[in-house]
Structures are given as structure tokens and as C-alpha cells.
Design a protein that fits this description.
single chain, about 350 residues, TIM Barrel, Membrane-bound Lytic Murein Transglycosylase D, Chain A, eight-stranded mixed barrel, three-stranded antiparallel sheet, about 20% strand, globular
């Protein structure tokens, strides 16, 4: 008798656990699931032909951050992903600290993506809040989203980790805009937020996909991620250059950094307000205009596994390696270069994809 009671108690306990875990699992908005990734300049050059063959359906691409930073690989990622038949989403990393700044960032985001034809809802990535209150965070989000919708006529999805979906973003946002939730090491996201379902689920930041070096975020999306129409975004293009940030290392010189990035000492000095070009400090963060780098990358032909780059006047292997996010050693080995300090204008180099 005692054994029966114990078994029944154990059965009820396990059943309660199962019911509890089930009730706290947030379901997808539909049964149709698409495999996806989200990318930025951190992934460097991506071979989207291989990505497509690996079973990826959707790629979300970072376009911009703040009110003056364009991801240096945005246009290249967009063009190559489109050309290989992937469905495209675009996202902006929001840094605003008040509603006026949010509107400026919305204008900048809309300007950067002008002329593109995304397949998926535009995404707001707001995850770094500083000392903002919850009310301020929600007001900034609404100001940004409303302005983007006004300028682009596109629907928006909110990207958020599970914690902030529960504790930061409020019911007004949740009732009006769908959720792309990030929660790792779980099979389903937890259902203790103001949203009742997800249309995007980022389940890992350590994914491995053919065609991409290193880790990449992995996602699942439902068919509600797609826009209802595929019209191009026609907001006026912004002429602000594309900016990257470089942290000065011990032993760096301004001339060496300029050489690495294919720019000039005077351009870096002017962009960063440097008075003495011979005086920079370790851990100082410099803004670098990489617009020309992207234009160079775009013009290159691609063969299986490699990009073919034609050396230009003034190029060094350091500059080329930095531009393509590869090591000097890999270029030397792949092209059988005997003297890394001796390369010639017009010479064609193979670069690993």
C-alpha cells in the first residue's frame, strides 16, 4: 500500500513538472518554421552560396547602429544574400537615450536601407539601456518604431532577450509589435513575458554554418516574419560615410593604422579630432572611415571558395588582410608569395571565403 502511495505521489509530481514546463513554453506563431541566421561585420566575408546549400532560408543583416554608423559589410551581405536566393531581413542596433535621438536613429536607419527590398519585417535591436528607466525605454522604442514605419511603410519586429521581453518591454509594445526572442540552451523560449508567441527565436550564438568563419547566431522564424509586400524602400539615401571603430594597441602608430585600413593619417586625425598625429594612446578608440574598403570588396569577382582581388597602387598585404578579415599568412600561403613585403599593382590574389 505504501509503495502504491509513493508511486502515485511520484507520478503526480512528475506530471505537475511536465505541465508546468509546458505552460511556460512560448509557442511559435505558426507551425511553419524557417531556419535562419543573423549577421554583421563580425562574420567578415560570407559565402552565401554555401550558406544556402547548408539549409538556411532567412538571413537578418545588420545595417546600422546609432545615428552615424553603417555596418561595413551591410551592402555586400545584402547583395550576395539576395543573389543566392535567401530571404532578407534588416536590423538596426538602437543606442538612443531620449526620444529625439530615437527619431534621428530611425531617420538614419531608413536612409541606410533606402533602395533595398527586404523580404522580412524590419527589426529593432534595443538591448543596451544604461541608466534608462523602463518608461523611457518603452517611449524611445515607440518613437523609433513609429518613425521607421512612417518613413519606410514597413512592419517592425522587436528583437529582445527573454529577460527584457519579460521585465522591460511593456504591454503597449507587445500588443502592437511581434517578438523575435533570444534565449540560449533551451528548446523553446520561456512564456513569462507580455508576448504570447514568437515569430523569431534566436536559440544560439555559437552556430556553425558552411560558408561562415567562426560562430554565427542561429535562429528559427515563422512565416509571420515575412512582409506582406516586397516593395523597395524609397526613403532619401543618406550620404554619411561608413564608420568602423579601432582600439589602439601598444606599439601602434597612426601611419600604420592608416595603412591597415587603406586611408590616410589626415583622414583619421580629422575624424577623431587628433591634434598631434604622433601621439596616440593604447586602448584609445578611433573612428575609421571604411567606405572605400566596402566599395573595393564589392567589385571583386568570386570563384568557388575564393574571392579574386586585384592589387591597387599603395596596397599592402596588411591592408588587404584587414579588409577581408583574413590573416596575412593565409594570403601568402594561398598565393605562394615568397616575399610578403613585395606585391605588385595589378597582381591578382586569391582570398579565402
Amino acid at each position: 500500500m505504501i509503495k502504491k502511495i509513493l508511486c502515485l505521489t511520484l507520478f503526480l509530481f512528475i506530471s505537475l513538472l511536465i505541465l508546468s514546463s509546458t505552460s511556460y513554453a512560448m509557442p511559435p506563431s505558426s507551425d511553419t518554421i524557417y531556419e535562419g541566421i543573423d549577421v554583421s561585420n563580425w562574420q567578415g566575408y560570407i559565402d552565401y552560396n554555401r550558406v544556402k546549400k547548408a539549409g538556411i532560408d532567412i538571413v537578418y543583416i545588420k545595417s546600422s547602429q546609432g545615428s552615424n554608423v553603417t555596418d561595413p559589410f551591410f551592402k555586400l551581405n545584402y547583395t550576395n544574400a539576395k543573389n543566392n536566393g535567401l530571404k532578407i531581413g534588416l536590423y538596426h542596433f538602437l543606442t538612443a537615450r531620449n526620444e529625439d535621438e530615437a527619431i534621428k536613429e530611425a531617420e538614419y536607419f531608413s536612409s541606410v536601407i533606402s533602395g533595398t527590398t527586404p523580404d522580412c519585417k524590419l527589426a529593432m535591436d534595443f538591448e543596451s539601456f544604461g541608466n534608462l528607466t523602463k518608461e523611457e525605454i518603452n517611449n524611445i522604442s515607440l518613437a523609433f518604431i513609429n518613425k521607421v514605419k512612417e518613413l519606410t511603410n514597413k512592419d517592425i519586429v522587436i528583437y529582445s532577450d527573454a529577460f527584457n521581453a519579460r521585465d522591460t518591454f511593456g504591454k503597449e509594445l507587445a500588443s502592437a509589435y511581434p517578438l523575435w526572442v533570444a534565449e540560449y540552451d533551451v528548446t523553446e523560449p520561456s512564456n513569462d513575458s507580455n508576448w504570447s508567441y514568437w515569430i523569431g527565436f534566436q536559440y544560439s550564438d555559437m552556430g556553425r554554418i558552411s560558408g561562415i568563419r567562426g560562430f554565427v547566431d542561429r535562429d528559427r522564424f515563422t512565416d509571420d516574419i515575412f512582409l506582406s509586400s516586397n516593395e523597395s524602400i524609397n526613403t532619401p539615401p543618406n550620404t554619411v560615410n561608413q564608420i568602423e571603430y579601432y582600439t589602439v594597441k601598444r606599439g601602434n602608430t597612426l601611419s600604420g593604422i592608416a595603412n591597415e585600413f587603406g586611408t590616410t593619417i589626415n583622414e583619421i586625425a580629422g575624424l577623431n579630432g587628433i591634434k598631434n598625429v604622433n601621439l596616440i594612446y593604447p586602448n584609445e578608440v578611433l573612428k575609421i572611415d571604411v567606405t572605400r574598403n566596402l566599395e573595393e570588396i564589392k567589385g571583386n569577382e568570386v570563384e568557388t571558395g575564393h574571392t579574386i582581388y586585384t592589387i591597387r597602387r599603395g596596397n599592402t598585404l596588411t591592408y588587404i588582410a584587414n579588409m577581408f578579415k583574413v590573416s596575412i599568412e593565409s594570403i601568402v600561403r594561398l598565393n605562394d608569395i615568397k616575399n610578403p613585403n613585395l606585391i605588385f599593382t595589378g597582381e591578382r590574389l586569391r582570398i579565402n571565403n
